[in-house]
Write a structure and sequence with these properties.
With 550 residues, the protein is α+β, with helices and mostly antiparallel strands. The chain has 2 domains: 168 residues, no CATH class; 337 residues, no CATH class. 53% of the residues lie in helices and 13% in strands. The protein contains 15 helices and 11 strands. A hairpin with a 2-residue loop joins strand 4 and strand 5. Helix 4 runs parallel beside helix 12. The protein starts with a strand and ends in a 5-residue tail after the last helix. Keywords: Endosome, Golgi apparatus, Membrane, Receptor, Signal, Transmembrane, Transmembrane helix. InterPro entries: EMP70, MFS_trans_sf. This is Transmembrane 9 superfamily member.
Length: 550
């Protein structure tokens, strides 16, 4: 059993609930993922023996002190709810209610009540428990409004009923209740979004192909004619377009981290689609994220070092260190801050020292060695950068460009279209991560993810073409930043969600929400930036390979 309020959770007995003499408190040994999820289960006070019915069973009698009354009143005012597990089936319910019969804003008119009685309805099939629900009695309450001692008798009832539902199907209830209430409307919204975005993408691709076709015809005609005039457009900068970018070590490290996060996302989707993350498989997602991230660190090391050596970098060891810390560094700093906040609040979201040491050991003996091995493999398999055009010794001067061709306006254009493809689904994801709902429609989420990749690739390629057509050859970093700019829109959506959709309050919930969402959006920036750059590189290679460059 434990207590929770949105993303803030506490141990059940942090509140002064009574403990029967016959109940021995034992904390359940949690797996790594369950601890990361904030689960700290302890044996509950209710004796629910199989097929043993109980009617108004007295749990205990307790006299609440003024301090305990005030503690319960604060919990009721913040809508705290309990979460229990019986035979791995979840049960939850509010611990009390607030009434304001006068319907005024005067705090004196508020009444606070604590529920004293819980009614358990348990369904069984043969010797298996199939379903359990808990109902509180609205008439059996303790008045907590005044600061005075209160005598309370806490009771519970247990009723058993037979059902035909098979044990293998007992989790289907949670899958169905976790879906949006109007699944058809949800599907229609997603399909509508897909059609609009794909039409826009197709329209953009058609225009781009027509423009490119005209460019190829024009350049072919120019080559056959007497070359007594100056070249214009993207062919004019063929000697600069493959000039290596500044800060090549950082660029290679960002590509390595982005490739690793992309690989991680693909593996997590595969596990989700085969049913590993079924409802209330507590901590499975966190365990998968941690283990897969550690195992895919070799992908980051290989990609970063291979690309860094292609860019004629010399200090590949420093590049490897930068790759290992580019994403993990900010994440570790944010975790230290947020874990300290959770410790100060005595919340179960604070990781124990032992769990932190397990993560450190995983990073030391699994992540780091695989990163180094990947780096060594990347260094040994390096090849020279194959550019279709020879790069000139001195870069051409970039002409003065209009304001809308700057980095920030281009980022706004590049991020808006991919965000429009996913914003419908973002609400359900946020409700699952930061609310009390469960997300199980991984098929829809996978479709949206594929759509996000397609749109990000197309919009980045289009903006890269327009940048080159304006004779601006510094496209390497621009394509990466434009590809990852969707993450800025996602973080902006966090502000909208917090102020209009969530009931979060207090420093801990605000810091956890915006802190961890910043890390998630940073990961999206690296991953989508990598997708944008890789798409642009394929496009640029293709168009310059299609013309004769002198």
């Amino acid at each position: 059993m434990e207590m929770a309020f949105t993303s803030e959770s506490y141990r059940y007995y942090d509140l002064p609930f009574c403990i029967p003499d016959k109940v021995k408190l034992e904390e359940k040994k949690e797996a790594l993922g369950e601890v990361l999820n904030g689960d700290r289960l302890v044996s509950g006070p209710y004796a629910l023996d199989f097929l043993v019915e109980k009617d108004m069973e007295i749990l205990c009698r307790k006299k609440l002190t003024k301090e305990e009354v005030a503690q319960f009143r604060r919990a009721v005012d913040k809508d705290y709810y309990f979460e229990m597990y019986y035979d791995e089936l979840p049960i939850w319910g509010l611990i009390g209610r607030v009434e304001n019969r006068e319907e005024t804003d005067d705090p004196k008119d508020y009444k606070y009540y604590l529920y004293k009685h819980i009614h358990f309805d348990i369904l069984y099939n043969k010797d298996r428990v199939i379903e359990i629900t808990a109902r509180t009695d609205p008439h059996s309450v303790l008045d907590l409004t005044e600061d005075k001692e209160v005598d309370g008798e806490f009771t519970y009832t247990a009723k058993w009923k037979q059902t035909d539902i098979l044990f293998e199907n007992r989790m289907d209830k949670f899958s169905q209740t976790s879906l949006p209430h109007h699944l058809e409307i949800h599907w229609f919204s997603i399909i509508n979004s897909c059609v609009i975005v794909l039409l826009l993408t197709g329209f953009l691709a058609t225009i781009l192909m027509r423009v490119l076709k005209n460019d190829f015809i024009k350049y072919a005609h120019d080559e056959e004619a007497v070359n007594d005039h100056e070249e214009t457009g993207w062919k004019y900068i063929h000697g600069d377009v493959f000039r290596f970018p500044k800060h090549k070590s950082l660029f290679a490290a960002a590509l390595g981290c982005g490739t690793q996060l992309f690989t991680l996302t693909v593996f997590v989707f595969l596990l989700a689609l085969v049913g590993v993350f079924y409802p209330y498989n507590r901590g499975a997602l966190f365990t998968a994220l941690l283990v897969i991230y550690a195992l895919t660190s070799g992908v980051a090391g290989y990609t970063a070092t291979f690309f860094y050596c292609q860019l004629e970098g010399t200090n590949w060891v420093r590049n490897l260190v930068l790759t290992g810390s580019l994403f993990c560094g900010p994440l570790a700093l944010m975790f230290c801050f947020l874990n300290s906040v959770a410790v100060s609040y005595s919340s179960t979201a604070a990781l124990p020292f032992g769990t932190i040491m397990v993560i450190v050991l995983m990073w030391t003996f699994m992540t780091s060695p695989l990163l180094v091995l990947g780096g060594i493999a990347g260094k040994n398999s390096r090849t020279s950068f194959q550019a279709p055009c020879r790069t000139t010794k001195y870069p051409r001067e970039i002409p003065l460009l209009a304001w809308y061709r700057g980095t920030v306006p281009q980022m706004a254009m590049a991020g808006f279209l991919p965000f429009s493809a996913i914003y419908i689904e973002l609400y359900y994801i946020f409700e699952s991560v930061w609310g009390q709902k469960i997300y199980t429609i991984y098929s829809i989420l996978f479709i949206v993810f594929i759509l996000l990749l397609i749109v990000t690739s197309f919009i980045t390629v289009a903006l890269t073409y327009f940048q080159l057509a304006a004779e601006d050859h510094k496209w390497w970093w621009r394509s990466f930043i434009c590809g990852g700019s969707t993450s800025i829109f996602i973080y902006s959506y966090c502000l909208y969600y917090y102020y209009t959709r969530s009931d979060m309050s207090g420093f801990m919930q605000i810091s956890f929400f915006f802190g961890y969402m910043a890390c998630i959006c940073y990961g999206f920036f690296l991953m989508l930036g990598t997708v944008g750059f890789r798409s642009s590189m394929l496009f640029v290679r293709h168009i310059y390979r299609s013309i004769k460059c002198e």
